Amino acid sequence: MIQRTRHCTVTKRILARQFSTEKPKTQPYFSKTTTAAFVLGGAGYYYYDLVGGTIEGLVRSIQFYSFAIPWYVVYRYHLFRQSPQETWDALDHKASQQALEKILQLQGFYIKCGQMAAANIGDAFPVIWQQTMHPLQDQVPALPFHVITSILDEEMPSWRDLFAHIDPIPIGSASIGQVHKAVLKRTGEPVVVKVCYPHVERLLRGDVRTMTLFCQVAQPVHVPALQEMEHQFQTEFDYRQEAMNMETVRQNMLKANMPCVVPKPLLAHCTKRVLVMEYLPGEKLAAALKREVEQQASLAGKSVKEYVKEQERYLEESKIPFVSNRQYSYWIQVEDMKRRWHNLRARLYNMSVGWLPGQVWMNYRDRSTLPLNHAQLVDDVIRIHGQQVLVDGFFNGDPHPGNILLCYYGKNEPPVLGLIDFGQVKRLTKEQRHLFCRLVMALDDDNFSEIVRLTKAAGYRSENMIPECLYKYAVVAYDEERLTGGKHIQLFMEELQAADQIITFPKDYLMVGRASILLRGLCHALHQPRSVAKLWRPIAERVLEEDL
């Protein structure tokens, strides 16, 4: 009976809908489903537009999240559980290998992220991650040469009349383009041709926005830097602007007699996607440092691993924080004497016994076989960028080891630093330079009240404006990591954010902080801890004295 009644009721409702014999009841489920569909559809379309308005951008974003979110949860779980170091090492090894595969698959902005890990910027990455990502420093997959020539055809239709030859094998490739060595037809001068990848601007913008959304939830402290990087894309994807930036920095460095060289751009032959510049005879700093370790290990008759362990043991047993400039100079003089003695023996042998049948000539050693003075190198790099920031107010905000070369202009001449890649250049006004000069001096003096006052004057705003938090932000961002207490810099910054979240970062000084952290990353890689403020103080004092 109940079943029959239920059947009649259903029939009655159907008839009511068909012939309006009964007013249909509101269907809350249908309305909620429709609303949810509209909301999700609207959110999906918004996100689709946010990552570039292309299916490709959406797919790249999904691929990133499908990798990043699970690993983020796993890392947070082990952080909460305070897992032992053995667990972290196994985790880092597995995660970094998968991350490298994903980076090589997606490329774009994710190549930049991998390069940051390889450079161990700010000592923020475990050694395992640094080692795994090292191939991204100079082994990024390049586009086929026919794609490059097609871009040249679009940008410089007469490029075949300009160049006598372009080497089809690139001398470098990065996230937004690749570099080929060429020879000018008219003068025979070797030059470098930098070509921007097609559609890369759209892809990188989508990648940065994807990363920004992820960091808004997972690591909010990185959001302002990512937003500023996206803003800098306005000039990074126009090689004409980069060429003008390069020429400005080159003139500034020459005027100040800085110990570095900057390639001269051929402005008349630069387009939006093609940059032609002077060729610098050298190699990337990261590659030079790797080669140095291999050479010194070979000369010592040890493997690279054995040599590195021996050096670390020496520093630990001697209880010195780092090898000083004076110690390096003495070591290099001793090694140079050994080199000269070896070359003398080689010359005598080759000019006598070497002429006999079956004898093999001895090889000569040039200055490139000598150890590098890491202490002097670090000091020079930091002072060069101090000149750019404090004096010129025109600086490269991306001074990682991949953008620094070691140039050799003669077999018996010491190497010279070469600066390249000026897509992320920032300007500071005279007033901003003066304020930052005062902040540098306050940081060197560790003047708490003055650091807090100048940090506020620079434009930092936090929820509670706690002086201790502002002080720590300034010291860690612009000077050194001594306040982290041995904590990972990421955890330290998260704790600061939890204590007093920064609401407004001064964008003009944000890139100065990024440059400072990048420079300190180089210091950590070379076991040369430095206070940026201490090295920049003489420059700051001179600027204030001359300008005021």
From TrEMBL:
Q: Which SUPFAM superfamilies match?
A: Protein kinase-like (PK-like)
Q: Which CDD domains match?
A: ABC1_ADCK3-like (cd05121)
User: Which keywords appear in this protein's UniProt record, sorted alphabetically?
Assistant: Kinase, Transferase
Listed name of the protein: AarF domain-containing kinase
ABC1 atypical kinase-like domain residues are: 136-308, 354-453
Q: Which GO terms describe its molecular function?
A: kinase activity
Q: What organism is recorded for this protein? A: Fistulifera solaris (Oleaginous diatom)
Mention any Pfam family matching this sequence. Answer: ABC1
